[in-house]
Amino acid sequence: MFMSFSNAVSFTGNLYNTFSITSSGRRLLQSSGVTGYQIIVIDPQTIQIVFPPGSTNTNINV
């Protein structure tokens, strides 16, 4: 998943504390933590979130 920002963004500190990533259940409307992902800064306006192989949930909240 790629996230693009309209302006350059400066990230400091631990990106895993900056972004909270959860998956939303379709039936129960509740969220649970997502583990095993990587956050990669591509450039000042783009980050990439890479989920582990076999991840199938398409309802992700960032």
Notes on the structure:
The protein is mainly beta and 62 residues long. It has one domain (2-61). It is 6% helix and 35% strand. The strands form 2 sheets. Strands 1-5-4 form a 3-stranded antiparallel β-sheet, with no helix packed on it. It has a 3-stranded antiparallel β-sheet with strand order 3-2-6, with no helix packed on it. The mean pLDDT is 80.
Strand residue content: 35-45%
How are helices and strands ordered from N to C?
A: EHEEEEE
Percent helix? under 10%
Provide the residue-averaged pLDDT: 80
Distance between the termini: 11 Å
Order of adjacent strands in the largest pleated sheet? 1-5-4
Anisotropy-based shape: globular
Specify the number of helices: 1
Q: Give a short account of the largest sheet.
A: 3 strands, antiparallel
Oligomeric form: single chain
What is the rounded Rg? 13 Å
Counted beta strands: 6
Helix and strand composition category: mainly beta
Contiguous runs where pLDDT drops below 50 for at least 5 residues:
none
Domains, number: 1
Task: Describe this protein with a few key phrases.
62 residues, mainly beta, 3-stranded antiparallel beta sheet, 1 helix, 6 strands, 35% strand, globular
Topology:
Blueprint: E1 2-4, H1 15-18, E2 22-24, E3 31-33, E4 38-43, E5 46-50, E6 60-61
Antiparallel strand pairs: 1-5, 2-3, 2-6, 4-5
Summarize the structure.
The protein has 62 residues and is mainly β. It is globular and about 30 Å long. The chain is built from one helix and six strands; from the N terminus they run βαβββββ.
